[in-house]
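ok new one. same drill as before - structure tokens go in, u give me an amino acid for every spot. 360 of them this time. try not to just spam alanines like last time pls lmao
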């Protein structure tokens, strides 16, 4: 009897040990899974914080608000999974592009691409960006060399582009400036100009992005005397990004939006004047965001740019119809173009340049 009880106890002990080992092993794998999960979450979070908008390539700037470091490199994925492991590399000029000499080569035709994250190529590899495709397409002809330099930086707006052209970019001796304009420029101008410094003559000197003291876009709206209390309440409760106000049907003709446009078009006018003074050609490319094709939204921003170009007698390429009739040109969760959108833009620009005899 005692032997039987002893065997039973030994058996139960082994069973307990076996159960414990199974439990420990299970907890090990569960713990490993959870660590992996949270590590991925932290990676996603860090990518979101680091790679939106500039990643570790970004820096604050006392003149241009922000910019890119020289000779930098990072890899980035979209926090929502739209793209992964996209490499971003900057050259010695601080551009996301291959190396170019400051001095233009003999007989070269040099084009500067100026713009924000669409021009920067957010979400695609550098060789897939539209400026790179434009250069490849134009360089395949048996003509004089053509250089297309990508000066685009995430979240640039017209006022920052004015400063960059005035102080630096014209030193690259371009023959043509292609300025890419979208709806985010208008509200971002108002945001950046809060940090502006001016000369005694009232000329803009710079936008100090190293202070971190500017009001948010919503705060600008809510403090405006040109918006009613009803509009302010709608804006404060809206989940939409504030800069979309310039494309929302209910606001596009408001005094507030008109006041924003007056500022932006004034700096755009000064850019055109600078190109004329330097005998540099300019083309303004305007393109829609996909959300502008929805019922609540308007294509008024593109119409304003077209009218501006007509008044100033400068070339304008409007890509609205191209994108309206295209399929799968934008990322699903992100406003930017995917590879198809960049290819469409590049083909449109090359065709425009050739048909207007801007390049031979």
């Amino acid at each position: 009897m005692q032997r039987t009880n002893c065997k039973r106890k030994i058996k139960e002990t082994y069973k307990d040990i076996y159960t414990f080992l199974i439990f420990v092993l299970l907890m090990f794998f569960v713990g490993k899974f959870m660590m992996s999960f949270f590590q991925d979450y932290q990676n996603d979070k860090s990518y979101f914080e680091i790679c939106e908008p500039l990643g570790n390539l970004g820096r604050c700037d006392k003149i241009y608000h922000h910019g890119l470091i020289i000779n930098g490199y990072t890899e980035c994925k979209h926090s929502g999974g739209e793209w992964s492991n996209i490499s971003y590399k900057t050259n010695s000029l601080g551009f996301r592009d291959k190396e170019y000499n400051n001095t233009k080569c003999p007989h070269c035709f040099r084009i500067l691409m100026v713009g924000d994250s669409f021009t920067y190529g957010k979400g695609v590899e550098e060789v897939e960006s539209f400026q790179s495709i434009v250069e490849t397409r134009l360089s395949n002809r048996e003509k004089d060399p053509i250089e297309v330099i990508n000066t685009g930086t995430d979240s640039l707006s017209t006022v920052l582009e004015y400063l960059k052209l005035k102080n630096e970019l014209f030193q690259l001796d371009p023959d043509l400036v292609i300025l890419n304009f979208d709806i985010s420029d208008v509200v971002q101008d108002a945001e950046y100009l809060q940090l502006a410094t001016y000369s005694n003559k009232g000329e803009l000197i710079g936008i100090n992005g190293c202070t971190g003291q500017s009001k948010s876009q919503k705060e600008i709206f809510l403090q405006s005397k040109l918006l009613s209390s009803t509009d302010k309440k709608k804006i404060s409760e809206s989940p939409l990004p504030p800069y979309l106000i310039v494309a929302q049907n209910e606001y596009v003709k408001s005094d507030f939006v008109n006041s924003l446009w007056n500022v932006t078009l004034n700096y755009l006018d000064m850019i055109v004047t600078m190109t004329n003074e330097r005998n540099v050609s300019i083309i303004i490319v305007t393109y829609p965001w996909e959300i502008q094709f929805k019922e609540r939204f308007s294509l008024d921003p593109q119409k304003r740019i077209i009218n501006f170009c007509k008044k100033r007698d400068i070339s304008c390429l409007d890509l609205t119809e191209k994108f309206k009739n295209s399929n799968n040109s934008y990322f699903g969760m992100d406003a930017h173009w995917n590879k198809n959108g960049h290819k469409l833009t590049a083909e449109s620009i090359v065709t425009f340049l050739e048909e207007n005899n801007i390049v031979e």
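The first strand starts at residue 58 and ends at 61. and btw Confidence is low (pLDDT under 50) at residues 30-53.
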